[in-house]
Amino acid sequence: SLAVYGQEGGNTEATWPKFFLQFGTDTVLHVVAGNDYGAYYMSLMYFRCVGYEGQGIWDYPPYVFDTVRDIAYDITAQRMDDRVGITWMAHPPYEEPWCDTCSGNTPTAYLDWGVGQMDNDVYVQVSNDQGANWEPKQNLTKVPIGEAALKGYCDNSILLDQEGYLHVIWHAHPWPSDPDLTMNWGGDGFFWPDKSRLMHWSENVPYLR
To answer: Is the pLDDT of residue 157 over 80?
Structure first.
């Protein structure tokens, strides 16, 4: 990620929090929030507090799991176990390296602020020890650059079912193969594309539907 909590040029403000209280090996409060990095970039931060009723200890600094241009993220946990899951949306890289998990390291080729909400892959990351350590993040959509597809737009939700399987659902909309030729940048109505869909993915049925 580009941004680090409290680094020079950034700030230490956290906005738009989401949380989950977990009673596993320990009682842990999990929180995800955004941090405005400037130039419309936002670092996504994970905080956790182990313990409760005034005796909790917060991890510091928070874990910055990505830097994005779309404020769309959510967190879940198994209520009585130790598994935690995060989902978010982020731009694909438009420059090398081309790896599936290089989100947020380079800006989109289309800098209109609305595109920050429209041109996104959907990611998840899992912890099996109440947020102390995290597995590598996973790109669920992996849309190749220049390919028309249904892309993540603005909102997503995540949960762990009773059997411990992760589920993610998100709002997806059509994204053209060549936005410069197809999209009416700045014109009326481009910001609200039609033919949108709700997409679902889960660990036990790991494909988009």
So the answer is: yes
Phi, psi torsion values for 155, nearest 5 degrees: -150, 140
- The residue type of 127 is S
* pTM for the model: 0.82
Largest Cα span, the chain: 58
Q: Which residue in 153, 152, 16, 3 sits closest to 67, CA to CA?
A: 3
Pairwise CA distance, residues 155 & 188, whole Å: 22
Nearest to 169 by CA among 136, 208, 117: 208
In sequence order, which residues have a C-beta less than 8 Å from that of residue 144 and are 6 or more positions away?
Answer: none
C-alpha 202/C-alpha 23 separation (Å) is 23
Helix (H, G, I), strand (E, B) or coil at 43: strand
